[in-house]
Design brief:
By secondary structure, the protein is mainly beta. The protein contains one helix and nine strands; from the N terminus they run βββββββαββ.
Amino acid sequence: MAIVNITTINDADFYRSFIYKTVADVPIDLTGVQLRMMLRKRATDVTVWLHLSNGDEGGITIIDAAAGRFSVLITQAQLERLPIDEYEHSLVMTSAGGTEQTSVWRGTLTNQAGPSR
C-alpha cells in the first residue's frame, strides 16, 4: 500500500490524476470497481469531513480503466468549507463484484489557507 500525502490550498481546486499499478509497473485494471476516499481528523474519528468516490459522492473519475488511470478532484468550495488542519485519508477499491476491498493508499491531507479565497 502506498503513502500519499496531499497539500491543498483553499483558494483553488485540487486536481490530480493517478495511475494504479503493481510494483512491476503493470497497470491494475479498474473496470467496474468502486473507488472511495474519506477524510477524518484521525482515522478512529466518527466524523467524515470529506467523502469522494466514483459513485454518488463524486470527486473521483476513472479516466482509463484498463490503464489504471483515475483522477481526484476536490473543489475550491469543498476546501473552503473544510477547516484549515491536517486530516488522515485513505483510498479503498471495492471489486466489480463487491466481494473484495483493497487499500490503495493512505496518508495525510493538509488544507492550507489561500489568500485569494
